[in-house]
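hiii, so i know i said id send this last week but things got crazy w the move. better late than never?? heres the sequnce for the chain we talked about at the cafe, plus the structure i predicted for it. fair warning i was half asleep when i ran it
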Amino acid sequence: MGKLIPFEAKKNKEGKLDKEALKMLKIADEIDSVILKHIDGEVDARDVAGLLAHRLGTLMRHVNEHDRKILWHIVMKVLKDQSEVGVVSDL
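okay and structure toks below
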């Protein structure tokens, strides 16, 4: 299966992936698997992207307001970098 999200995992002093990085990689693989399973002739990638954005917004509501603002900037940067979009504008 191709990776939808290249993930830069942290390594410990011995050069092995730490437990948190391994857990994040497992979660990323599971998310990729679900996405790839459902993107086909009946489900458009744009619809899945909208669904993921909706779910991420819901998830962020469970974080305090200060951390939510920080997360918002991180999400915007990662999304912009991963999608190779130069400028994010209103549609």
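btw Residues 19-83 form one domain. thought thatd interest u
miss u guys!!
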